[in-house]
Specification:
The chain is mainly alpha-helical. Helices cover about 40% and strands about 5% of the residues. The chain is rod-shaped and about 85 Å long.
């Protein structure tokens, strides 16, 4: 019985590192959780063998198609950018730079007042706030 447990422990110990290195993700991944160590084999009155280690969960690769978030969308559930914002955002980074704003006389004139965080770009949150303020004045 002791030999069987030893063989199982050695097999599990050599299989886990091989499984972890079998497929390497192309993008940075979240670290895998550590395996739960096996309960040491102790002689018991019941004759129940020691538990095997719980295998580590595979790493979750980063989603390369998803650009980094540039802030929270002002309206829950919004899936489309406003047409003018989308047209001005030439580099599709989710923000309008001072250079991109030059394509619209109105946006160029209002750029500094719309850029409330003064980072040189108008985010969707800033755009929506300015649009809402503009509508409330009408």
């Amino acid at each position: 019985m002791k030999n069987i447990l030893t063989v199982l422990a050695v097999t599990a110990a050599t299989a886990l590192p091989l499984a972890a290195t079998a497929a390497e993700p192309a993008q940075p991944a979240t670290p895998a959780q550590r395996a739960t160590p096996a309960t040491p084999a102790m002689p018991t009155d019941t004759g129940v063998p020691a538990q095997r280690a719980t295998p580590a969960q595979p790493a979750t690769p980063a989603d390369p198609a998803k650009p980094p978030s540039q802030g929270v969308a002002p309206e829950a559930g919004r899936t489309e950018l406003p047409p003018m914002f989308k047209e001005l955002d030439k580099d599709k980074d989710g923000q309008i730079s001072k250079d991109e704003s030059k394509r619209s006389a109105e946006t160029k004139a209002d750029f500094d007042s719309m850029d409330t965080d003064r980072n040189g770009k108008i985010s969707l949150v800033e755009w929506s706030a300015a649009d809402k303020a503009k509508r409330s004045k009408q």
